[in-house]
Each structure stands twice: as C-alpha cells, then as structure tokens.
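Our platform keeps sequence and structure together, in a single record for each protein. Such a record has a labelled line for the sequence and another for the backbone structure tokens. This encoding replaces a full spatial description with a residue-level series of whole-number codes. Below, we set out a record of this kind in full and without editing:
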Amino acid sequence: MNIKSLLLGSAAAMIAVSGARAADAVVVAEPEPAEYVKICDVYGAGYFYIPGTETCLRIGGYVRYDIGVGDTGSFDGVNHVPDRQDGDTHSTYYKNTRFTLKTWTGQETELGTLKTYTETRFNYGNSSGDYLNQGASSANDWQGRNKSLSLRFAWIQLGGLRVGKDDTAFDTFIGYAGNVIQDTLVPYGGQESNVVQYYFDAGNGVSAMVSLEEGAGTGTIDSYVPHVVGGLKYKGDWGAITGVVAYDSNYEEVAGKVRLDVNVSKELSLFIMGGYGSDNNLNDNAGNVIDASGRGFYKQWGGNWAVWGGGTYKFNAKTAFNAQVSYDDWKNLGIAANVAYTVVPGFTVTAEVDYLNAGKYGDFDFNNWTKANKKSSLGGILRFQRSF
C-alpha cells in the first residue's frame, strides 16, 4: 500500500462520517414567547395588569424632605437643645426625611370592584418639641435617628364595603382641613384606625357612609362596643356640602362636623368647616381612670366648638397659594399659609409659615395640644417632595 492509497482511503472515510452526521436532524429550540406588561386603563393612569391575572396594579409614592425652624408650638421648632460644651441651650432645625411607598389594586367581579390600597412610611430625622427637661423619656428626640416605620393605610374594598386600616371616616369622608402642612394647630379629629365601613352612592351627587372603628392610642375602644361614624354628602360642579357625626364609645360622647366647599372659579376654591361636640365626660378628670382633659378621639379641639376655613388660589399651572385659619372654644387660634411651586412635574417645593396663639396658656386647666412653650408661637417649614 502506497502513501497515495492511504490518503485516498482516509479521505473516503472522513466523507462517509461527515455524511452520516449531516443526515442527523438538527433541532433548534424555539424561544419562549415574550410576555409583556399590559397597560390597564380602567382605574386611571399608571395601572398595569399583573401577568397571568385580571388584577390591575399601580405602584407609587413619594420622597420628602422637611426643614423647620421656630417655636415648638407651631409644630416646626426644636427648642432648648443642650449645648455639647458649655451646657447652655439652643434652638435647632426640625428635619425629617420620609420615603412613602403606595400600592393600589383593582379588579372587576360579579359583586363589584375589588380594590386595595396600602401606604407604608419610613422616616429619618428628629422630632419637634421643647427639650428643656433633659430628664424626660423623650429628652434625646431632638437628635436625628431612624424613626417610626408605619403602616399608614392597608384596606380592602369590595363594592361599598371597606375593611382594614384607614384614617377615621370622621376625617376622610368630610375632608382634611386644607392644603397646608400644619393643618392641626387646632385639631379636627382622630386619624388612624382599623375600620369596617360601608359607602353608598345614591347617584345625582348624593352619597352616605357608616363606619365602625377601633380608634388608636388612648382612643382605642375599651370594650366590644365600637366607635361609630356616619356621614352624608351632596357634591356638584359648584362644590360640596358634607356632614359627619361620631360616637366615642369610651367616653360616651358625640361630636359632629359640617363642611361647605365652594369652587369659586378655576383658580380659587374655598372651604369652611365647623365642629361641635359634647364633653361632660371628657372633662371629668376626677371621675375618669384615664383623664381626657377635654379632648377625645373625635372631639380633639378645645371646648365644645371649633371652626376651620381656608382655600387654594392657583396663580398658574405651577404655583398655588394655600391658607387655613382655625379657632376653637378655648380661644386657640391657628394660622397657616404656604406657597407651593412645582419645579418640574412630580417635584414640588412648599414654603409655609405657621402661627399659634394658645388661648388658655398658663391657666391651670390648659391642655397643651401643640406642646407650646409660650402663648404665641411662630415657625416656618420648607418641604421638598418628589412624587411618583
């Protein structure tokens, strides 16, 4: 066998092997079909379908940074902070950074729309207050720290039935006291609570609500008897008129509020709200095991009555002026006013000035709602907020 024959034989063998391999079918796996997020526009902008379900989800929230100065009675100040070297005291900034995460879901069912809403807040900063008493349990709260992580809202609603954690309907159904930051210089009612509520829409702008509530803190119910809130509203293009009434099952007292909202023009909207509540048991510190000193979960204002009024004027698409004035039976006067400027869509800077005159400051029965350290308190707060 010569070299030529050997090479020819090797070539023939290689061709045979190659042909055999070529005869085998080459199977290429098909790519999995891509599943894109589908937009859901049933409940408004920002919703999308959760893949594989009929549930629409929206995720949002905000990042906020507050800087406050002034007197503690305005909720803006941090007073009598101890000097690290000479032991003297100073005032310093109130600062708080907050990250809030919100979720909304919606789905249509044979029993109506099934919805949920959650809001979780993370806070870092110090707390406004007067820190002259360095023996108090809160003596170091002027220092920056990770503060409360709070589940602010978490409720389920099917049709008109809502259960879970919400603000009391004593506030949500009638509305909060204006678009100012410090809207509770004269307080208008309790806020957080577990609730069982039913909302009824009668059409033609008429709606009603009833809410069974647990309360919060010292306002938490002390038996199986819930707090009860009821409300009625008529809303039109011109504005709205709303009334709510609440029963405090702990102290067996009743409070109510009536509110009028008026859309004067596209630029100007105004509101006025009045509250009245009974307080015989709330004032019975001698007979109560836990003193209320005139303020309950719903009737938080001083005395029997209180009034709040204010409004918003929009100078243009970016700039708005907001104001609120409040006054109660104990002669507490609160004034808050701000200018909110939208730098770019989603980013707003608000500058506010706040004033409180504590009517009964220095009296033996003075109930110090804002922790004021003087009769007249003045402060200001600057807020930066990015909403998404």
